[in-house]
Amino acid sequence: MAGRHAHLPLTSRIFYRESRFTLALGLPVAGAQLAQIAMQVVDTLMAGNYGGTDLAGVAIGSSLFMPVFMLCAGILMAVNPIVAQLVGAREHKNAGKNLRQGLWLSLILTIPAFLALRNATPVMHLMGMEAEVIHIADGYLKAVSWGTPAAFAFMTLRFFNEALGATRPPMFITILGLLFNIISNYTLIYGQWGMPELGGVGAGWATTIVFWVMFLTITLFTFTRPEYKKYRLLQDVKWPEIPYVREILRIGIPNGISSCMEVTLFSVTALLMGSIGTTAVAGHQIAINIASVTFMVALGLSTAVTVRVGQAIGRNSPHRARLSGFTGIGLITAYMGLMAIVFITFPEQLAGLYTQETDILGVAAQLLILAAIFQISDGLQVSGLAALRGLKDTRIPMYVNFVAYWVIGIPLGYLLGIHLGIGPSGLWIGLIAGLTTAALLHCFRFHLLSKKEVNSVEFDVPLSGSESVSR
Q1: Do 265 and 131 reside in the same domain of the chain?
Q2: Cβ pair 435, 404 in contact under 8 A
Q3: Which structural domain, as residue segments, surrounds residue 278?
Q4: What's the pTM?
Q5: Which residues, 6 or more positions from 36, have their beta carbon under 8 angstroms from its beta carbon?
Q6: Where is the domain boundary, 179, 205, 240?
Q7: Contact of 265 with 410, CB cutoff 8 Å
Q8: Residue 187 near residue 195, CB atoms below 8 Å
Q9: What angle is formed at CA 201 by the lines to CA 196 and CA 202, rounded to 5 degrees?
Q10: For residue range 287-345, what is the model confidence (pLDDT) as tens digits?
Q11: Same domain for 48 and 146
Q12: Cα–Cα distance for residue pair 215/236, rounded to 1 Å
């Protein structure tokens, strides 16, 4: 490769190599994210085919489960930048210790999550839902609650592997989980092969089975891989150690809250859309579903940005960290820009994959035009946030997300869409404003912090075209 690009300036060659490293690390994570989305689609399709009430119960149960899951997964995601920096610094023993402490923390987080999921009925009553829907959603949540220990431990092990550059195994394991999800849903929802017919509640038990399958598989992979011996994963096992757990929480809690605030931005928009009418909700759901698929790829690539920035900081190379961050930001934004062109060019065709009802099709196509705008903003905010995470900077980004989403995005969407009567487009203008604010501030903060790192370090590992990456 170096020979083929020897005519390029050194910085251009490094940019080219960095792009290849980012794509090699990030695309498998994107594949895993898409497989996770596919699991939700399978749950929806199979529950929907069983019955409308069961579909509603699964939808409500899933919407209550996701904030809990995202909060805990966001906290545990701190393992990724911590281990990435330790790997860059070649502190392999400490990297292994942080994995063990992360696993302890995942078990601790299971307790409040388990209790919350099993006591969500009052929330559903406050929302005024039908008794039969509440019954199914409650059964779904209680079934899923038994999978939380495996789900949180799996995410911890996944973040550890990704920090080492091993992103393909979690992807294959997630695809395996998707296959188990299809089989388990078919068996438990419809009562096949002598199993009980559980309807929508069966989707919850299928999800729990999938979590345990993925956890056991990634555990077997991680603790038996010969290359991981240097991390001493099974040596010096201790009870939770406060300094390590505190470090994970210091980075992870703001990150988890940030994730929740972004999820709630879209959730509140969907709820406000319900006050406009059924057609608005249906069109919104179609447009958001399409945009979510493209975002999963950007989210997967952003993990590679965190890893590359973190490993470079660990190697005491802020120049490389800055280059890695802005390379990833550029790649992700370019991809989202391409998707924006697709949305603008084929809005009716994309929406037509979901419905042929003229009214709904019109709303969805109109919103896809707006989605083209926030594709750019979404790409910038997720990549900028990932670059900051690689620097272990999560507290200020949490405040930024609060202002962007809850002070600007939601109020502006309500003002335009509901108060001024613009409708679905007005609510989506609020989404665009919130995401754009977060995007600009996250990227600007990474520029400032990475520049500060470059100026403050006394010795920087020189940039070269021959650097290897942990794979």
Answers
A1: no
A2: yes
A3: 254-471
A4: 0.81
A5: 174, 296
A6: 240
A7: yes
A8: yes
A9: 50
A10: 877 888 888 889 888 988 998 998 888 888 888 888 889 999 999 999 999 999 999 99
A11: yes
A12: 22
